[in-house]
Amino acid sequence: MRSYYVGVDVHQASSVIVVLNGAGKVVAQVVLRTRSEDLRSYFKGLEGKVRVTFEEGTQANWLYHLLRPLVSEVIVCNPRRNKFLAEGNKGDRIDALKLAQLLRSGLLQPVYHGELRMRALKELVRNYHCLVVDTTRVMNRLKAIYRGRGIGCAGTAVYQVERREQWLKKLSERGVRQRAEFLYKQLGALKPLRQEAKLAMLREARQQGAYKWLLSVPELGAVRVAQILAVIETPHRFRSKRQFWTYLGLAVVTRTSAEHEVVKGKLQKRARPAATRGLNRNFNRLMKKVFKSAACSACVAGPFQAAYQQRLAQGMDESLARLAVARKLAATTLTVWKRGAGFAPERMSAPRL
């Protein structure tokens, strides 16, 4: 069976497709409209073992589910790792060719795209997250107006509906007061929408089989569980807890060089430890926020508090102790999910003295 490697440079109006054969020779180049019928018709006409790649972007999820039934393999690649594309001339055909070459060489870093059954939850979680961000942005802008004029506005009193007129009277400038009125109207519209989006998200999350297992993990809560289910989808994406920590941005990055030396005519490994360079920078931002916030609560009360206090007693910095709790919480979540059973405190390992 013939093998073909297809690179697609996707844009809003058009998509440039370059096809390589098993020997790396260009056998086809075509420009199509970025429409379902055009792309489906073209890829249906390709015979043999067809592997397709394109970069992660706005249309990546739609295109992934469109092409996956039509070809042997679809790889949505991480554009941040495609340094080869930045070299030399740049153009749609050149980019598609380079993607096909990287695919043929096995040098692409895939981006996970889940199953269609989780699409509803994904959209609802994204909707809720956007509304939370929008609400926070309006609240920050509102407080910035008062802070910028030397008016103290600590706490949440400035947002209370019954005190709005009182706060608006503190603004003497007509334009500024009108701007604040518009922000209050935005806030009044966003808050009920956010609550409605939250309820819709939780209703969808409760239909997932793993919801009750993850909800039993201390400090996760219903909203965090819904976000975890939507983003992770399945725990079997991660072979070990260390891979999971990397995805969450909780993995320590180290750097080392010249690891071996010659001593008395024999080659041996140096005793010098690797230099620590902080946490990894390539991670899912929403998931890091979920587990960091859960760890902050777990350090105050609950079964994970003992691990936090034990590390503080050993002289560990508070931030590092919270990181350790976040990693322990993440490992527990992964184990509970894979095991398919609720959280059992008696299974937790006792803090080491």
Characterize the structure shown.
The N and C termini lie far apart (61 Å). 47% of the residues lie in helices and 15% in strands. The protein has twelve helices and nine strands. The radius of gyration is 26 Å and the shape is globular. The protein folds into three domains: 3-105, 2-Layer Sandwich (Nucleotidyltransferase, domain 5); 118-205; 211-347, no CATH class. By secondary structure, it is of the alpha/beta class. The model has no long low-confidence stretch (mean pLDDT 91). Strand 7 and strand 8 form a beta hairpin.
Q: Which secondary structure elements does this structure contain, and how are they paired or packed?
A:
Blueprint: E1 3-10, E2 14-21, E3 26-33, H1 36-44, E4 49-55, H2 60-67, E5 73-77, H3 92-105, H4 119-147, H5 164-168, H6 174-205, H7 211-215, H8 221-232, H9 241-248, E6 252-255, E7 260-263, E8 266-269, E9 275-279, H10 285-298, H11 305-313, H12 318-339
Parallel strand pairs: 1-4, 4-5
Antiparallel strand pairs: 1-2, 2-3, 6-9, 7-8
Helix pairs in contact: 4-6, 4-8, 6-8, 8-10, 9-12, 10-12, 11-12
